[in-house]
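Weekly sync notes, structure subgroup
Attendees: PM, AL, DS (notes)

Item 1: joint prediction request from the bench team. They want all two components modeled as one assembly rather than separately. Inputs as received:
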Amino acid sequence: MGNQRTNILFIVIGSLAAVLLQVIVAPNIAIRGVVPNCVLVFSVVIAIYNNRTLSCSLGFVLGIVFDLLSSGPIGVMPLVLCVLAYSVSSLNKDMFSGGWVVEVLLLLVASLLGELLYGALLNIVGYDIHFANSLINRILPSAVFDAAFGLVVFPLLNRFSQQQRKEIPTLKGKLR
Amino acid sequence: MALVPKKTKRIPDGAVLVLLCLLSIALMTVWVREGDSGILHDVRAVFGTVMAPFQQVGSLASSPIREVGNYSENAGMNANDIMELKAENEELRASAIRLEEYRQESERLQKLLELKDVYNLEAVGARVIGWSTDSWNRVITINKGSSANLTAGMPVMNANGLIGQTESVSLNSSTVRLITDERSGVAVFLQESRTEGVLTGSYDGLLYLQFIPLDIKVDIGNSIITSGAGGVYPKGIPVGEVVAVELYPNDVYQTIVVKPVTRVANYEEVLVLTGHESEIAPNYNAVPQTGNTGTEDGADGADTDTGAGEDGDTSQSMRLGRYGVLGGRWTAPWEIREPTYFS
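Output from the run, pasted for the record:
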């Protein structure tokens, strides 16, 4: 019960921090217009160690906040983060026993898929998105930037991650 | 009778996902359908007002970093660069003197032609307090909103030239979509040939000048200025200069790459043009031309008041006269091109 409360507290504080980072820090470290997506990074990290409902709901809320902050259409990022968080949360937790390398790789892939989906949805709502150009100038750099951002963030979240790992029943544990 | 604890019904994960996805799609639909104003736009405006102080904090905190960036960029110059800059400075001084001559000459000629005033610009100064929070939009946030009588669609510029136009306005802040954004389009013409085209943004931050026919001669370094067509931007604001011209045999138009006159990193204070009128009524047939100019526009001199006090306050409304920031680096088109001589 105590752990659950700590977990919720961490998620709330972490979400606020992610939003503030997105507003205050991210625009100022943008490289050639490519801005790291702190909200996406946080959603993926939370999805790694939490159940699907919680991850999906958090993704939705953070997505709405992200859309309100940006100047794009509202509703696109919630959809992206919902699907992304649900998918990441559905992965076998044993995958992450390998440590942060797997997590960062997962973040890279998740960011890539997330940006691709975001671009595709923008196209649907009427934006004129040139696929090849956006892939080279937006999607790939964003994914790399997010993964790099994740490298910085993961050590900060390490303590939390370790705590969560202990609570996840692994296959090894069951065999013993 | 033993009490059996009630089992709480848990909503399946899949159902939550489907529900939230449907909600997201509903939001998107509402957003698309409500056009330029509606409940979601209002919510965003309120959210923008709430987040504006945080953006300002970010802007203030990052200004030393940007300064360091500028310093390191300048520190990287070698002796040759400095020599080149000095030479360029000399040329510019000479050019400024020559341009002043042309300005005075133009004033006299316009009085003769009894041309009406071309522009009547009013502007509000604002500070940039935030940059785009995502990679898909090239926008900036400024610290003036509806409380300063700003509305969506107003042109925004700085001392160098055009930046963009206001897109959404909240009480004390506004979002400005930059001309380098892929979705921006500006009606412009080539200053030298007076050929009209449309300047669009791109993913790489450069601008592309479209609809310039193959038979029009375009040189690298040619200036691009707003044409005033469409009525959004006033005529004569510098936008960029040509950096590359590509001609392909099967194309109808040239591919012209334009470098913007302003860099995003340099945006600190901007001017939002709250009012401008275009009252062009020249009698072209009455002007015997021997120069290379096409249309003739312009008017007499203008007083400049940037409105920014010594303490950096840019809040007061400014009247820019007919040409905007004269004395800064923005000059009216007639000041730059070759003068028209009368026989």
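Discussion: The helical segments of chain A are 2-25, 38-49, 52-69, 76-90, 100-124, 131-167, 171-175.
Action: AL to compare against the crosslinking data before next sync.
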